[in-house]
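Archive entry: two folds, one per protein. Generate the first.
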Amino acid sequence: MTTGPDTPTPWTEFRDGLTTVFPAIAAAVPFALLIGALAVDKGLSALESGLMSALVFAGASQFVALDSWSAPAPWLALGLTALVVNLRHGLMSLSLVRHLGLFPRWLRPLALLLMVDESWAFAEARAARHPLTPAFYAGLTVVFYLSWVAATLAGAALGSLLRDPKALGLDFTFIAIFIVLILGFRARPGFAAIVPASAGTAALVDALYPGPWSIMAGALAGVLLAMLRPVPGAREAS
């Protein structure tokens, strides 16, 4: 097989993945800084703060865990809370694994381990246009992961300077990036119905029972509506 100047190489695929995810990294780094500062404020060392980000790598569950942190730490409650917050990753993994055909089998679990909301959304968008390659996915995830851990360590070192995200204008950055991610799926069938149903369910559950369950409730509502929605052309084909 011959290659030409326009043939993608692993490096160009990696570069494209990094370019795609860079705005999300820019939005996530301030929150990783904040997590590091909050962790130190809760009594963790800088090393423990960095290990938390390295092992968990999930901003929402880390925030929830730190918000519930006390001495001694309620390990069971913290673990269950983190599990509830991240249950949506199971649904996301089922979606993403369909596109990992070019990945060696041994690499697929690592790919799912490094998956976060942003990399999942960008990988899905890429797979809708081109085959998802390991190099492109590495560009989406590896630098994101390393920057998250490094920013957490920096936040732990800076400490009290970063404890109020509103004072620094950081409270809206994550909201903004998720709005952009959602709008990236606006051309998908059922978008106009699924997104309001998911958001409405999450808001209702949070109003009735505040806590992390609203995240999973919204995700399940969207999945169920997508499953029940009639597929265009299905009736004619049958």
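Generate the second and append.
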Amino acid sequence: MLGIIGAMDSEVQELKNEMPDAKITSVAGMDFYEGHIHDKDVVVVKCGIGKVNAAICTQILADRYKVDSVINTGVAGSLNSDIDICDIVISKDAIEHDMDVTALGYERGVIPDMDNSVFHSDSRLIDVAVKSIEEANLSVKVFTGRVVSGDQFIAGKEKKDDLVNTFAGDCAEMEGASIAHAAYVNNIPCLIIRAISDKADGSAEMDYPTFEKKAAANSIKILKQLIKNL
């Protein structure tokens, strides 16, 4: 069973439309669509915005649906000058950038009492995603990079530069690292796919509404091909 998580309707609705006979179960205010896409067992869910919603959702997928892998699809702001709007970032790893216990001597992003704070993506899922993007014939560039997540919409140069300098982030969003975190503690392979909706700078508020739908549509195209290839 493959678990697919998006934070917003635009990130998962088209996948739900591919499952007309889906069994829908509501848990913790989230609707889990269980069915088939390309003859593969999948469960698709909108988790809502933010790290807590995303982590709760991932744990439900682990406990109730016993998923054997999790893919998080959606949009993000670019932190890398080479990565433009509508380009694709496949996660090599993910970090929670708003984890800050520096007052107790930890580096930013380090989660106390955990053996790991950088959550690496599954190598097989990365390979399948790269192949799937090539086959989807999207006229965008593809990057494998670091996703940094926090409960903030990044829309200023100072914060953007901080995330680049501190974490070497390639894109910023609000769910991926918490999904990767929850998958890690449950020993579930995980991958984050992000289409760039804005540049996470002073133009972000203007760019995001314009490009969010187009970026999300690109993510959906990739995910459909990826499901077929798994």
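Annotation attached to the second fold: The chain has a mean pLDDT of 94. The beta strands are 2-6, 23-27, 30-37, 40-46, 69-78, 88-96, 119-120, 142-149, 171-173, 190-198.
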